[in-house]
Each structure stands twice: as C-alpha cells, then as structure tokens.
Amino acid sequence: MRTDLAQPVRLADYRVPDYLIDTVDLDVSLARTATRVVSRLAIRPNPLGRPGVPLVLDGEDLVAKRLVLDGKKLAASAHRVTPDGFTLLKPPETPFVLEIETEIDPTANLRLMGLYRSGSAYCTQCEAEGFRRITYFLDRPDVLSVYTVRIEADRADAAILLSNGNPRKAGTIAGTDRHFAVWHDPHPKPSYLFALVGGNLGSIHDTFTTESGRAVALGIYVEPGKEDRAHYAMDALKRSMRWDETAFGREYDLDVFNIVAVSDFNMGAMENKGLNVFNDKYVLASPETATDGDYAGIETVIAHEYFHNWTGNRVTCRDWFQLCLKEGLTVFRDHEFSADMRSRAVRRIADVRTLRAQQFAEDAGPLAHNVRPDTYREINNFYTATIYEKGAEVIRMLKVLIGDDAFRRGMDLYFERCDGTATTIEVFLSMFEEAAGRDLAQFARWYHQAGTPKLHVILDFDDAKGELLIELEQTCPVTPGQNHKEPFVVPIAFGLLGSDGSALPLQPVDGCLSEDEAARGLIILDERRRALRFGGLTERPVTSFLRGFSAPVRLDAEADDEQLAVQMAFDPDSFNRWQASQTFAVGLLLVSIAGIRSGRAPYYDAAYDQAMQKVLDDAEQDPAFAALVLSLPGEADMAREVGHDVDPGAIHVAREALKAKLGEALGDSLLSLYHKLEDKTPYSPDAAAAGRRSLRNAALDLYAAGNRLKGNVLAQAQFAAAANMTDKLAALSVLAQTPGTARDKALKAFYESYKQDALVIDKWFALQAMQPDAGTLDHIRALMEHPAFSIKNPNRVRSLIGAFAAGNPTQFNAADGSGFAFVAQTVIELDRINAQVAARLLAAFKSWRSLEPARRDLALQALQSVANTPGLSADTADIASRSLA
Ligand code: TRP
Ligand code: ZN
Known about the structure:
The protein has 885 residues and is of the alpha+beta class. It is 41% helix and 21% strand. It folds into 5 domains: 9-200, tricorn interacting facor f3 domain (Immunoglobulin-like), CATH 2.60.40.1730; 315-448, Neutral Protease, domain 2, CATH 1.10.390.10; 454-545, Sandwich (Immunoglobulin-like); 553-706, Peptidase M1, alanyl aminopeptidase, C-terminal domain (Zincin-like fold), CATH 1.25.50.10; 755-885, Peptidase M1, alanyl aminopeptidase, C-terminal domain (Zincin-like fold). A hairpin with a 5-residue loop joins strand 17 and strand 18 (215-222). Helix 17 (687-706) runs antiparallel to helix 18 (708-721). The structure holds tryptophan and zinc ion. Residues 125, 127-128, 266-267, 269-271, 304-305, 327, 380, 383 line the site of tryptophan (TRP).
C-alpha cells in the first residue's frame, strides 16, 4: 500500500513555545489573485522556553517578498525561507520586531483554508492551521497575541472590510478608488481565531445591551438581497447572548459582534473573535426556503459559535489534543441552550439520535479515538463526533455526578482562573475537583479510553421475598491500540415501575445504594460489576435504566414486550418512553432481519402496533415527542444493532416491511391525525408549531408506507398546496419513495420553483441521492453534470455525494460494489481540490469492517484504490490508512 502519511504529532512531545508573539500588526491589501500581506510581529524569547534556539515559523503555499528584522533587511545567511516555513537562525536574545511581506492568491485557494474567495467576497478560515497560509507565524493555539489589522481594497471590489475586535479607523486613500479600515482586538488570541472579510455584502443590524449595561452593535452580513433571511439568526444571537449571562454568568466583551455568511465553507461555522464566519446554510432562513429543522440548526449553530467566546476564545486550548476542551464543552452548552429554548425531552432525544448515529458508529470502527487523543497526523480529521458529541456527553455526566451547584462553581472557577490562558483537560477537571471536593481521576478515563462501553443488566425477581436482584456489568470493546480498558464511572439514572405504570419507591436492601444515590435515583457504577437488591415489591417491576440517557453507553437489558409497552405508556422519563418504543422496534427488526437472511418472510408482532396506537391516542399532548416515537429506528441504527456480518439489503427489506405493517395497522388514526393537525395559520418557526408539523408529516409518511396509493394522493395535494418548505419537502420525500413519472414530475416542479436558491437545491440533491432504488447511482452521476452542481462547493458535495455515502445504506453498500467504487473515485477527484472535505467523505467507510464478507471485500478494494493513489493529501491518506489498519 502506498501512502503519503505525515509524521504523527504526539501529545507526549508537547513543549512550550520557545518564542512568544505579543502583538501582530497586519496590513492586508486585498486583490483577487495577488493579495499582499505585511505582518509586523513583536517577538520575545519565552522565559520558559529554550534560550537561543532558532525561531521556526509555520508557512504553507506562501511567497515571501520581504523580510526585515528590527528595521534591517534580513541577510540571506541569517534565515531560511521556503513556501512552507521560515527559520531565523540566531534570533536576538531581547525582544525584536520581525516584518514579513507575503503574497497570496485567494482565487486559487480551493481548499478554503486561509484567505479565499467565496462568491464575490474575500474571507478567511484559520482553524486549525490556516493562518500559516496567510503569513509565516507560530501557528499554534498557545501563542496569544493582540492583533491590529489594516485592510485595504478597491471600494468597488470590497465596500465592506471587517476583522476581529473593535473598529478603530476607516478612510479613503486620496486620489485612488481604494479605501481602508483598521480593526483592533484587545483580547490576546491564538492565530486560529483570526478572521478578515471583504466584499460587497448586504447586512442587518441590531443592538444588545449586556447585563452590566454595555451596548454591543450586532451585524449580520449576507449576500446582497438575502438580508430579510437573516432575521431569525439575529434573534437567535440575542437569545444566546442573554442565555449565556443567565445560565453561566458570561457577558460579551467587545463593542461589536459581527457574523458573515458565506456560501463556500468547509464546516458549519467558525467562532473567530468578534467576527464569526458562517456557512450560509446556518444563517439564512425564510419559511419558503428553510425547514423547521433548518431553523433549529441555525439556532444551535449561532449559539454554539457565540458560546465559544468564553469556551474557546477567552479560555483556549494549549494544543490541538485539547480540542474537546472547547468543542465538547461548547456543544454541551448549545445543547442546554436549545433545551431551554424548546422542549428539553425532544432536544435530548434528537441529540442522542445524533450521538448514536455518528459517534457510536465511529467508536465501533477503525476510526475510533479518545475524546482527548494522544496522537494525530492531520488535525483536520479530528473534528469528529467523538470530540464534539461524546465530548459533550462527558461534560453532561460530570454535571450529573457532582450535581448542578458544584458544576456551576467549577465552571465559575474555570473562567476565573483560566481566563486569558491556553489550557488543558487536566486543568479543566481540577476546577471541578476543587469545587466538588472530589477526586476525578477515574472519571477522566472517559477522556483517555475510546470505545462505547456496554452495560449488561441481569435481573432476577424473588417472588417469596418481594425482592429484585440487579446485576450490572460494564465491558468496553477493544479499539485501535487499546486492548485493555479500565472501568469507567457510569452514572445510571434509574427507576422502577409497577405493571400498572405507577412509579415505585426505591427500597434498597442492605444499604446497597448510598443515601444520595437512592434520593437521586442514580446508580453510580464505578467498578466492573455491581449487584443491587430492591425490596418491598409485590410483583416483578418494570425497570427503567439510563433515564435521560445519563451515560453514553449501550444498554443490554432484558425486557419483554409487555414491559416495554408499560414503559412506552408510563415511564415518567420521556427519554425512556421514547427509548422503549425504539427497543421494541429493534427487537422485532432483529428477528425479522435474521429471518429474511434465511429466506423467511419479515416478522411482525401485533403487540407493537397496540403499543404504538396508545402513543397516537395521546399524540396531540406533545406532538414533537410523538413524531419522534413514530419514526422507526433507521437502517444505520439497525446495522449498529446487528453489529457484525451486516447485510444492509436485508435491513432495508425488514424495516420497510415493519413500516408498511405499522402504517397499515394504524392507518385510520394516522389519517385522522393528519387531517386534524392541518394548520391554516401563517408559518412560525417556534417549537410548538414545528412540533405539530413534524407529527403531521410523520403521520403522512407512516400512513403512506402502509397505504401507498392513498398516501401519495395526500402527498400530491400537500406538495401542491404547501406554503412552507417543511411541508413542501415532507410531501416531496413521500412522493420520491415511489419511482415513476409522478416522482419525476414532482422533482422537476420543485427544481423549477427553487432553482435560484442553492440551499434549496441542496435539499433536492440530497433527497434524490438517498433514494434506495437501484437507479440512484446512475442518477447521481447525471446530477454531477447538472449546472447546479459544483465539486468545488462543499455544500453541493455534501448534499449529493455525502448524502449518498452517509444516508443511502442500500445503494452505498450495493452488493456489486458500485457505491463504494463511486465514492472512492469521487474522493480521489475531490482530494486534489479540497482535501479536508475529501477526507471527511472517505470517513463514510468507517463501518466497512462490520459488513458481510462479500461487501467487506468490495469496500476493502475501494479503500485500497484510494490509499494507492499517488500524491494523496495528508488528510485523505490519514483516513485511508487508519480505515485499513
Ligand atoms: N471551531 C469550529 C466550530 O466547531 C469548527 C470549524 C469551522 C473548523 N471551520 C473549520 C474546523 C475548519 C476545522 C477546519 O465551531
Ligand atoms: Zn465549535
């Protein structure tokens, strides 16, 4: 196998920087293909570093034009400079000023890291290592500097000039049509938080007054003409700013806060100090173009980037191994924000679904890694579900373990002590050790051991004594490089129910639960095994483990249909009511899948639709919750449950059959619910209205599965009449499930209505890419030639190719290997354009080892075809080699 692997970077090799950069003065002259950057750096030896060693600055794809040390041109013998680095051989022992002029070509920058063009604007992306593509620098997060940035441009080319911090000065350059703006950011920051934007942008403005009375000017900049689509984002921003004050006591700290939306962006958004840059998908919304899901996504991402101002910017990471210090914590904060803005239970279920779909799958395959990794070859590949989602779950567990008050005291201490520093997970945890007066060494294993622990539960009811014996055991599968795992601290929120659904008091026998545990309904499992005994029971109770999904583990507990039905109807914990419905369906599907593989018909049990009928009867009390119960576990969820020797074809058949049976059995109720929930009032994106739409559309989808013809008639009518994108797209997705002229007509009509709108066309691409019928791959190949598609735009790639690889399990895993070969080929092509996005697409192969042997061989061949491609980027070579290891 040939690879182009970079040398690994190891946490154990961390050394403080030998030099510090106190101030950075940047002077940027924007021009389409030759932007000039003059950087003046005030540098001094770090008293904690090695004295006298050469100063080595990072660079990438740079052309050095001028190098000046303390006002004197640098002699050739005093330095080395290449496009990829600069070395000052014998730096002065006292503070000095280094001036470097570089030239860069933003138009040629298709990697979208550093300074690049998006539409008609200039913008930057520096996390994680993009600043070195702008100028030579100590491009590492533990070098904090105060930045002053002057930007100059042709007024016609870029009327708006933005950077971090506060505006200081602006003006025209006499006798020319050029103008300039100067920005100053008083808060020392690492280079990855630098940002600059120039362009002819439309904007909306508002103000926010902080708790202590500081007025902040807010601006959101978008493509001209799209201003009216930015109001929801502005509203979400103001709510985020207020929430961080109330929930965490964190105030904003500059005079301005700006957001810029661009259409070419590698990820969701970026928290640059005072100047967040967003993928426009997470800013722009109107009822006609954005779904309820899009509105919810905007709310969380706006909040997430804003919350980084404290968790990430004021307190930053010492090195990239500590990425979860800012990301896990900030995801936790945005989850809490969304829970407060909407329904807590519904948000929790949605977040856990994402965690399981993305992180559990990652943790179970060759790309598994620690929440705090100790080695990497390409940091871009570590912006993963494990860092983000599992990182957030670890914080949530910490809060449960030490309690809300100690958690808040720990957070306060963290901000107080660590403000203005670049720090580590160890320091973070020590704040909570101090606040809670408790040792967290064992808890820290969640950061150091990969893999999803499994919680095995054995139950034994003693009729004579009226006692329930519970034996708990935790195990954790091996992951790359980790064969042995020490036990985790697993908080298990727990309760007992009677067969009539009543909540039973916990009566631990022989003090098997501590008083605190008993009072909180919490079992803290911190050894491999623990046995518990509960008494005072007149019948075998129904057990409810992991309420609210109190730990990111897989639960393996026996429960029969009757017990699950009781839980679905009565568990006081809504998460577990939903979970019981899923567990019920998973049980049926597992039997069905095994049967289909040995030639039997799909399996069904009417007890399931009776339990679901009850949910439907109460559906209007909490429509958003009921909608989640009505959506069956996905095919990828089932692949994870099956675990090995996976046949995605059989999973698809089993799931479709179950859905059809259920839709048929519940047909009348679904239909009447569908009609009852029709909403004639104007669209509002609030959670209650969105919840009713989601239930109505879930009812339509399920009804159509069991009553295809009548369902399609309803969907046709909804498609024609819908005044908002949520209902329009839901109808289209029902129609798309039946190949034929009706579907083609609807898709064509949709395209004609929205062809001006790239973000809507992305939905159109994704929907087609996810159809499970055999014609899909050829259709995708044709769509890649469509004028609306461009392989240079990450949103287009994600919506057409990414949706196929991650959202079409039958065709991506097609038995002839065509899906694998297609994605591999596309990765190779894309790698030359945008390596970061290519590597992410290749990670869709993360579950290949769990497939049945024939498909596994085909996936292996596809992965090898990527790994053997000469000239592969470090990003893609890293994913390919880890996937194959
Ligand atoms: N820090 C960003 C966030 O999570 C992530 C991000 C944005 C990013 N753009 C990136 C990471 C480019 C790597 C590369 O909020
Ligand atoms: Zn983030």
